[in-house]
Design goal:
This protein has about 140 residues and is α+β, with helices and mostly antiparallel strands. The chain has one domain: 2-Layer Sandwich (60s Ribosomal Protein L30, Chain: A). The protein is built from three helices and six strands. A four-stranded mixed beta sheet has the order 1-6-4-5. It is globular and about 50 Å long.
């Protein structure tokens, strides 16, 4: 099992953009964050071979609490009675796992199970727990 934390404000994967000439590209902010995920994944692997077979991923995305909120609302966010339902879609954070292709696993197609959550917290970042699913091929 591999566990690691990527500190900092999590960045959801943005839609591909298109130039005037018709070429598509991934926005810089997304590319940078996927590289950051890959770096922390590489450190967590510390020389271990890539995971083989089916994989399960547990992901916890911790978003920063807005400074403009009052104490009561901040307390509700910390206790998870108030969850982030705004613009940063959870599925777009999952798409950022592409940054672990060739770092932790061969391809994200190996992922057969994902448990993903998002919440507010004092220390923003992304927690990942990755393991091979035992007993199946």
């Amino acid at each position: 099992m591999i566990r690691f934390f990527i500190p900092g404000d999590p960045v959801p994967k943005a839609r591909p953009r298109m130039t005037r000439s018709g070429h598509t590209y991934t926005p810089e902010k997304t590319r940078t964050y996927e590289s950051k995920i890959g770096l922390f994944g590489s450190q967590a692997m510390s020389g271990k071979p890539l995971l083989e077979g089916p994989i399960r991923v547990n992901m916890m995305v911790v978003l920063p609490i807005p400074e403009s909120w009052n104490k009561k609302k901040k307390a509700e966010a910390i206790s998870c009675r108030l969850l982030p339902t705004g613009r940063k879609d959870l599925d777009n954070f999952i798409k950022c796992l592409d940054g672990l292709n060739g770092v932790v696993w061969h391809d994200d197609g190996q992922i057969c199970s994902i448990l993903a959550k998002k919440a507010y917290g004092d220390t923003p970042g992304m927690y990942l727990e990755i393991a091979e699913i035992e007993g199946v091929k």
